[in-house]
Amino acid sequence: MNTALLIIFGVIVISSIVGITAGRNLKMNLENWTVGGRRFGIILIWLLMAGEIYTTFTFLGASGWAYSKGAPAFYILIYGALAYTLSFFILPKLWKVGKKHGLHTQPDFFIHRYNSRGLGILVALIGVFSIVPYLQLQLQGLGFIVKVASNGTIRSETAIFISFVLTCAFVYTSGLRGAAWVSVIKDVLMIAAVFVVGFGVPLIYFGSYSRMFEVLIQKMPQHLVFPGAAPHMDVWWVMSTILLTSLGFYMWPHVFGSAFSAKSDQVIKRNAIIMPFYQIPILLIFMVGFTAVLVIPGLENGDLAFLSLVNQTYPSWFMGFVGAAGAVTAMVPAAILVLFASTLLSKNVYKAGFDPHAGDEKVMRLSRVMVIVIMTLSLLFALFLTEDLVNLLILGYDGVCQFFPGVVLGLFWKKVTKSGVLAGLLSGVALVIVLILSGNDPVLGLNAGFVGLILNMMVTVSLSLLKKETPERKTSRT
Amino acid sequence: MKKGTKYALILGAIPFITLVFALPLVNRIKPVILGLPFLLFWILSWVLLTPLILFAAYTLERRINKSEKGDED
User: Fold this and answer.
1) Vertex A120: Cα angle to A114 and A123 (nearest 5)
2) What is the pLDDT of residue A121?
3) Model confidence over A3-47: pLDDT tens digits?
4) Stated pTM of the model
């Protein structure tokens, strides 16, 4: 076993111990397990937020696309900024509704606004299915990291399996608090790794950024404008993907909930103002991908670009450090995601749909079982249906984005009806599934998820205008 | 809609115009500015300007809505 691997496994094990012991002194009830008892200080909240935003996707996926596809990767830099802009206008209103009616989760909102349990259950299920590819992405990324760090002596399948077990262990025992504490380790390692490599690598090989770009422009100018090296990802694909992902960003079940946990609507607005600065490290990650395309061209898998370049440039212990950062960067978001997905299933599907009198004890037991079930499902996908990391993320967005009409119209348009939202949601999701399975993504140059969203929006609006629902009760207006 | 909110919305549209709808117009390498190819320079600039735009929207909305004496909430 080499130095790099020792460091990686050391950090993974320490992180897991921190995660598992984080919840030791607390009596684990449902509230503590899922929302950390609602007593997180501002620093823990911030860490969780960063824990959600910077995932293996940012680390490996963004550099991987800069390497293999070029300019289409720029969408990653853009969509965050636009998502925060949207949140500035949408979330404060959502917060007000949530506070007034004591809402906690995304299905809660749909149940309340449209007065429909069935819609709540459907939303919960679509949410869970969208989370699975995102989880798969984290596990797959982890496999890559260990594989490169060990120079191929440890198979990525083995690494994926080990991290799967450890993540399950600390989510199972400590819930969200475990994830928050491991997030501390993760953020420090990750930010250090990105800054050192992002600033370092272009300078080591080219002396300066501008020199690196000069060479890149000379050698492969097409790499720096759309569609880059991916002919089917022209500017229209980029535009539709940016819209899809920025509209979808706050529709992720785990991000949506953050609107309810804020202290006031003003806090949300101020957060939205600062958040675009979170995007800056992504630029550094692109630099690594661009340097790699010049220095080590011809890698079979672009997602390995970051790690391969580090492996070639720095001593083994540093590779271990970067690999460790990457590994916890996969484990923390995986923990947060699986936690939300399992709670959605046990609380918003099982309890709401089948067993309204289930006690907290029972719901929590079921949640813990669901953690294992969902993780196993993602594990199987990661092992047998390997995909591009970025494609996996976009796949998740194809799903969650379909909530957008129901949420935004529900907040700002009095006339939108339950049947409109239900039909819109179903037709949008169905179209996306058909397009993707029939190999028609992108369709007419546009992202399939975006096309589904357009249909969804049109169906929702026209049905709402056509058929007036008899007002069973006054929809609450704030 | 309150007047201040309207202005804020107009400001909020700027990042969407520059970072989505303007992309076909800026899809070029030259001129290279600060060492960055033009497309990347354009994107980076507007991403960094977005917080300033939102900050302007925030202050403008508060100031106008307050001076309009419209009942709060």
Assistant:
1) 115
2) 92
3) 888 888 888 888 888 877 776 666 656 555 555 544 555 555 666
4) 0.85
Residue by residue, DSSP assigns A53-116 as HS-HIIIIIHHHHHHHT-GGGGHHHHHHHHHHHHHHHHHHHHHHHHHHHT--SHHHHHHHHH--
Roughly how many angstroms between the first and final C-alpha of chain B, as a whole number? 12
Tokens describing residue A282: 């992504």
* Residue B50 Cα, gap to closest chain A Cα (Å): 7
B13: closest chain A residue by CA? A85
Structural contact between residues A158 and A1, judged by C-beta atoms closer than 8 angstroms: no
Q: Does B6 touch chain A (CB under 8 A)?
A: no
Distance from C-alpha of A144 to C-alpha of A387, rounded to nearest angstrom: 12
| A82/B55 touch (CB, cutoff 8 Å), yes or no | no
Query: Which residues, in sequence order, are bridge partners of residue B36?
Result: B33
Task: Please state, in angstroms and rounded to a whole number, the distance separating the CA atoms of residues B44 and A236.
Answer: 19
Q: List the beta bridge partners of residue A443.
A: A446
B29: chain A residues, CB-CB within 8 Å: 217, 221, 224-225
At residue A198, the pLDDT reads 93
Tell me the C-alpha distance between A13 and A284, whole Å. Answer: 29
- Tokens 């992720």 — which residue? A252
Task: Give the angle A469-A470-A475 at the CA atoms, nearest 5°.
Answer: 85
Say if residues A161 and A380 touch (Cβ distance below 8 Å).
no
Q: Select A3-401's CATH number: 3.40.640.10, 1.20.1730.10, 3.90.1010.10, 3.40.50.300.
A: 1.20.1730.10
> For residue A169, how far is the Cα from the chain centroid?
21
**Is A208 part of the contact surface with chain B (CB cutoff 8 Å)?**
yes
pLDDT higher than 90, residue B27: yes
CA A214, distance to chain mean position in Å, is 34
Cα-only R_g, chain B: 16
Q: Is the peptide bond before A227 cis (omega within 30 degrees of 0)?
A: yes
First-to-final CA distance of chain A: 61
pLDDT band at A227 (very low <50, low <70, confident <90, very high): very high
- For chain A, state the CA radius of gyration: 22
Q: Determine the residue type at A77.
A: L
A109 token code pair: 């909102």
Neighbours of B55 (CB within 10 A): 16
Q: Where are the domains of chain A?
A: 3-401
